[in-house]
Design goal:
globular, three-stranded antiparallel sheet, 3 strands
Length: 128
């Protein structure tokens, strides 16, 4: 029975799952948009929102907590400098999941996980 066990197993062992989620959160914060399966996107969204909430706090303890999870100082610096300012006035919901249909090989439901303020490079150049 799974009483009081939250989260999805995603068909992986616990260390593999934790490493995968850690890497996906790092990639999301670096590129601000990733393509993955829908269940993975739903799991990564939880952690990514927590990391942005830590950045909004902005103190040393929050930075160390983020470094303990992300382990890439450049990404943590981006999170605490750039992304913190973008989401300072937002009360939550920092990411969105866009369903894109099924993958050709195994019909897995695919989705795009992106930060709410994400803009493609083409849109940024068009605005300038």
């Amino acid at each position: 029975m799974r009483h009081r066990n939250s989260g999805r197993r995603l068909g992986r062992t616990t260390p593999h799952r934790k490493a995968m989620v850690r890497n996906m959160v790092t990639s999301l914060l670096e590129h601000e948009r990733i393509v993955t399966t829908t269940p993975k996107a739903k799991e990564v969204r939880k952690i990514a929102d927590k990391m942005i909430t830590l950045a909004k706090r902005g103190d040393l303890h929050a930075r160390r907590q983020a470094l303990a999870f992300i382990r890439d100082s450049k990404i943590v610096s981006k999170l605490f400098d750039k992304l913190r300012a973008e989401y300072q006035d937002r009360q939550g919901g920092y990411t969105r999941i866009i369903q894109t249909g099924n993958r050709n090989g195994d019909a897995a439901p695919m989705a795009i996980l992106e930060l709410v303020n994400y803009q493609q490079a083409n849109e940024v150049e068009a605005d300038n």
